[in-house]
Design brief:
Helix content: 55-70%
Number of strands: 11
Subcellular location: Membrane
Structural class: alpha+beta
Strand content: 5-15%
Shape: flat
Main location: membrane
Pfam families: V_ATPase_I (PF01496)
Organism: Pipistrellus nathusii
Radius of gyration: 44 Å
Distance between the termini: 33 Å
Function: Essential component of the vacuolar proton pump (V-ATPase), a multimeric enzyme that catalyzes the translocation of protons across the membranes. Required for assembly and activity of the V-ATPase.
Oligomer: single chain
Number of helices: 25
Length: about 850
């Protein structure tokens, strides 16, 4: 059977790889992505394996690559995407790549270090220039006059007239200036004059490059002790202190010298940045292919670490899972890769007692549906895959709850736009998680929208409004003509009834879907409740019965023929005998009860309750002759299947186990008798170890425990019998959510569009006025439709459809206890 309907056949293969060509062979297998290696060194520590040194070298290179990539991003650059199809480099190229990488990293470190030192020096010169500029402006201010030669502080008189005025100038961060000023005043007891001022222009930070303002200060004082306190205080605040000349000419000369040095430093910085851009350009060109190649090389060495070494150390032995259909391609790839070594690699299948992994190949279209199934659990090896049937049933059950032509069309167009743009790189490269979720399920959304349009036509709803595609099957004129409705009658009866028994009133069923005249009826909701509730039961029983039938293919494929008679048949009898009969009564009543007998039509619900009570209701006439006998027989038959379902499989397995055990003992007795009768010397070689060991099958037979089998079967029986009741009721969510969606659409139309239309017509009869009023109304209607009815209601219907497939459908035949085949591939490394 095809891969979509059942997982592919997977074989365990043993690979003999020549030591000289092992790296090339594994690299080629990584390019193909067809095999999953098994770890033959599970008991060996990762630090004691053969190629651990090569793996470490690759990891060290990856750390260096991370440093180079961060430097490129720090410079505001981006790495170009690597070329497609880059092969894993030969092992001899690892040393060359490592040397070039280390050289580039060292050049970047040196250039960055020099640039950092130059920027710090330039920043210091700029601060010193700002301090000298502040000192010059302070020196220019004097109380006696505008003379620049007037001293800042008048010389003291008295015994301290020989003391000399000293200056301390520097810069401090703005948030420290206030604390510094207070501490200086308290420490020096006010024997100083301090002036703080912000720099006129912000200076670039040497580390971050961000502009920042600084506070420059100029402190004048007398005495050496005061000077020592000031210097210690500024050191504690990590202030930049610079020499300050008292003479104006000296300050101007120092300022000019600082400007010249700053200009020279800017030129040197420019040269450093040009050299840095050259180095980063080489990194941009070389780093992307190196990253891909080293990741591939590391993956190859990790795969080689899972191989064992032959006794002669001439080849490596590997075991891998591979799809049987891919074995010729694997053999050809290994032959081509090992041809240069002179000895060809060998591939052959080996038996395995382990359950093989599950391999289901998917396409763009089937990937999202397979993901829904795998989210429940990966199927067992070659178990029936529910994904092909989910392609139809999931969108359909979603559409039953979401049926609306307008809403379905919007969802279909949104998904169609994603499908048409799926090959554009910008669409695939989008990093938004919500967009990636929608884009990954674009084909699922496409079918959900398409099926919603279909069920919308069945419900005859388009944004909660009925559409008239075909002529109605009801005639109001015929009812008016034959009933004699007068003007007085119409005035006194706001609600009019259409009697289908009157000739010409009911002309026949609507060609497709629900007749639009029902949207005008006051019993519209009651009619839809009855219709959708019965439709939900029919769909639910059909869906569950289909799941039970799919289990037949599992039993046939795995050779479990006894389960057909002891499990599948009782399950079908129990399900269809009770709830299949309920579906039969619904369909039978639809077909047999006409409009003339609708008033006396029997109640299906009462009949179904009486079926389990083995009773009858005198006021509820039977649907067909002999209904009571049929119902009683079905209940008895359904109850009779419960012990068969509970005890049949455990007893059969016990009988089969005993028969196989007797046959094994008989073979052992025959073998012992033959050995005793023989005069061969090999009799002495049969020791107690062989007798204790027995045959290989003994250990497997000892695993059979009747209590465990019976307990498992009891759980399955209770779950199925009770599940048939609860699961059938669970399908009523189709009715509930469909009704809720329709009512929300009706409320949104009535509260927004209907009020907007009435407001527009009330403000003026002119078309222009009404159009201006309807623009915001329609905008609000569109936003609420998308936010509530498409997103919220769509998500709700999606989750309920998911539950119906996982719990009500898949548990009838699908165990989901397998594990995926995860081939060794370089596809992820190339991205």
């Amino acid at each position: 059977m095809g891969s979509m309907f059942r997982s592919e056949e997977v074989s365990l293969v043993q690979l003999f790889l020549p030591t000289a060509a092992a790296y090339t062979c594994v690299s080629q297998l990584g390019e193909l992505g067809l095999v999953e290696f098994r770890d033959l060194n599970a008991s060996v520590s990762a630090f004691q394996r053969r190629f651990v040194g090569d793996v470490r070298r690759c990891e060290e290179l990856e750390k260096t690559f991370t440093f180079l990539q961060e430097e490129v991003q720090r410079a505001g650059l981006a790495l170009p995407p690597p070329e497609a199809g880059l092969p894993a480099p030969p092992p001899r190229d690892l040393l060359r790549v490592q040397e070039e990488t280390d050289r580039l990293a060292q050049e970047l470190r040196d250039v960055r270090g020099n640039e950092q030192a130059l920027r710090a020096q330039l920043h210091k010169l700029q601060l010193q220039a700002a301090v000298l500029g502040q000192g010059a402006s302070l020196a220019a201010t004097s109380t006696d006059g505008p003379s620049e030669r007037t001293p800042l502080i008048q010389p003291p008189k008295g015994p301290h007239q020989d003391l000399r005025v000293n200056f301390v100038a520097g810069a401090v961060e703005p948030h420290k200036a206030a604390a510094l000023e207070r501490l200086l005043w308290r420490a020096c007891r006010g024997f100083l004059v301090a002036s703080f001022r912000e720099t006129e222009q912000p200076l670039a930070d040497p580390v971050t490059g961000e502009p920042a303002t600084w506070m420059t200060f100029l402190i004048s004082y007398w005495g050496e002790q005061i000077g020592q306190k000031i210097r210690k205080t500024t050191d504690c605040f990590h202030c930049h202190v610079f020499p300050f000349e008292e003479q104006e000419e000296a300050r101007r000369a120092a300022l000019q010298q600082l400007q010249q040095q700053s200009q020279e430093l800017r030129e040197v910085l420019g040269e450093s940045e040009r050299f840095l851009s050259q180095v980063l350009g080489r990194v941009q060109r070389l780093l992307p292919p190196w990253q891909v190649q080293i990741r591939k090389m590391k993956a190859v060495y990790l795969a080689l670490n899972q191989c064992s070494v032959s006794a002669t150390y001439k080849c490596l032995i590997a075991e891998a899972w591979c799809a049987t259909r891919d074995l010729p391609a694997v053999q050809q790839a290994l032959h081509d890769s090992s041809s240069e070594a002179g000895v060809s690699a060998v591939v052959h299948r080996i038996p395995s007692r382990d359950m093989p992994p599950t391999l289901v190949r998917t396409t763009r279209f089937t990937a999202s549906f397979q993901a829904i199934v795998d989210a429940y659990g990966v199927g067992r090896y070659q178990e029936v895959n529910p994904a092909p049937y989910t392609i139809v049933t999931f969108p359909f059950l979603f559409a039953v709850m979401f049926g609306d032509v307008g809403h379905g069309l919007l969802m279909f167009l949104f998904a169609l736009a994603m499908v048409l743009a799926e090959d554009r790189p910008a669409v695939r490269a989008a990093k938004n998680e919500i967009w990636q979720t929608f884009f990954g399920g674009r084909y699922l959304l496409l079918l959900m929208g398409l099926f919603s349009v279909y069920t919308g036509f069945v419900y005859n709803e388009c944004f909660s409004r009925a559409t008239v595609i075909f002529p109605s099957g009801w005639s109001v004129a015929a009812m008016a003509n034959q009933s004699g409705w007068s003007d007085d009658f119409l005035a006194n009866h706001p609600l009019l009834s259409l009697d289908p028994n009157v000739t010409g009133v009911f002309l026949g069923p609507y060609p497709f879907g629900i007749d639009p005249i029902w949207s005008l009826a006051v019993n519209h909701l009651s009619f839809l409740n009855s219709f959708k509730m019965k439709m939900s039961v029919i769909l639910g029983v059909t869906h569950m019965a289909f799941g039970v039938v799919l289990g037949v293919f599992n039993h046939i494929h795995f050779g479990e023929w006894h389960r057909l008679a002891l499990e599948t048949l009782p399950e079908l009898v129990f399900l269809l005998g009770l709830f299949g009969y309920l579906v039969f009564m619904v369909v039978y009543k639809w077909l047999r009860i006409s409009a003339a007998g609708a008033a006396a039509a029997p109640s299906i619900l009462i009949h179904f309750i009486n079926m389990f009570l083995f009773a009858r209701s005198p006021t509820n006439r039977p649907l067909f002759p002999g209904q009571e006998a049929v119902q009683s027989a079905l209940v008895v038959l359904a109850l009779a299947t419960v012990p068969v379902l509970l005890l049949g499989t455990p007893l059969f397995l016990r009988w089969s186990h005993r028969r196989h055990l007797r046959r094994t003992l008989q073979l052992q007795e025959e073998a012992k008798t033959g050995l005793l009768d023989s005069a061969d010397a090999s009799v002495a070689g049969w020791g107690s170890d062989e007798e204790k060991a027995g045959y290989p099958g003994d250990h497997e037979e000892a695993k059979f425990v009747l209590s465990e089998v019976f307990m498992h079967q009891a759980i399955h029986t209770i779950e199925f019998c009770l599940g048939c009741i609860s699961n059938t009721a669970s399908y009523l969510r189709l009715w509930a959510l469909s009704l809720a969606h329709a009512q929300l659409s009706e409320v949104l139309w009535a509260m927004v569009m209907r009020l907007g239309l009435g407001l527009g017509l009330g403000l003026g009869r002119e078309m222009g006025v009404a159009a201006v009023v309807l623009v915001p109304v329609f905008a609000a209607f569109a936003v609420l439709t998308v936010a509530i009815l498409l997103v919220m209601e769509g998500l709700s219907a999606f989750l309920h459809a998911l539950r119906l497939h996982w719990v009500e459908f898949q548990n009838k035949f699908y165990s989901g206890t397998g594990y995926k085949l995860k081939p060794f591939t370089f596809a992820v490394e190339d991205q």
